[in-house]
From TrEMBL:
Superkingdom, natural source: Eukaryota
Protein name: Secreted protein
Organism lineage: Eukaryota, Fungi, Dikarya, Ascomycota, Pezizomycotina
Keywords: Signal
Keyword flag Signal: yes
Signal peptide: 1-18
Length: 162
C-alpha cells in the first residue's frame, strides 16, 4: 500500500507540476540510507529520547506533507485529484501498516471515483479549489535489527536526533 501511495503522489506531482518539479521533489526527499546509498524515500527515521536502547521513530517526511499541501493548492487540481491526494495521505502513506486501508476498500473507492468521472466531466477535468484534509500523522516506534545497526556503523550513516 505504501509503494502505491508513493507512486500515485509522484504521478500527481508530475501531472500538476511537470517533470522538472517532480525531479526536484525527488531531490528534496533524498536521504543517505542505512546501507550508505542516497535514495529518495518518503519517510524519516529518527532516534528516540532513549536512543541507547536502539529505538527509532519512523515518520512521513515533512517534504512529502508539504508536497501534498502544494498539490491541493495548485490552481489546476481537480476534484478527482483532491480525492486521490486525500486517499494517498489518509489511507496509504501511513508509517504503521496497521493503519493502511485494505486494498479491496481502496479499489471500491477508486471505482466510485471512476464512476464519478464517467458521469461528470467537471469532477476530473475542471479545476476545483479545495482545502487539504489533514489527517494527524502517527509515528511508528521500532527497534533497529542487528543488520541495520551494522550498516549504520559500516557506512557512518547517522540518524536524525529527537
Amino acid at each position: 500500500m505504501w509503494t502505491l501511495g508513493c507512486l500515485c503522489l509522484e504521478f500527481l506531482c508530475w501531472a500538476l507540476q511537470g517533470h522538472v518539479r517532480k525531479l526536484q521533489f525527488d531531490g528534496e526527499r533524498s536521504t543517505t540510507f542505512f546501507y550508505g546509498a542516497k535514495t529518495d524515500v518518503f519517510f524519516d527515521i529518527k532516534c528516540t529520547e532513549q536512543s541507547d536502547d536502539d529505538s527509532i521513530v519512523v515518520e512521513v517526511k515533512k517534504e512529502v506533507t508539504k508536497k501534498l499541501d502544494e498539490l491541493h493548492a495548485d490552481a489546476h487540481c481537480t476534484d478527482w485529484m483532491h480525492d486521490l491526494l486525500n486517499m494517498i495521505e489518509q489511507d496509504m502513506l501511513m508509517v504503521d501498516p496497521r493503519e493502511w486501508k485494505d486494498s479491496s476498500d481502496l479499489l471500491k473507492e477508486l471505482r466510485l471515483m471512476d464512476t464519478s468521472c464517467q458521469k461528470n466531466d467537471r469532477y476530473c477535468l475542471h479545476s476545483a479549489v479545495r482545502q487539504s484534509v489533514r489527517r494527524k500523522q502517527t509515528s511508528l516506534l521500532a527497534q533497529l535489527n542487528d543488520v541495520a545497526k551494522m550498516n549504520i556503523r559500516k557506512h557512518g550513516t547517522y540518524l536524525e536526533g529527537p
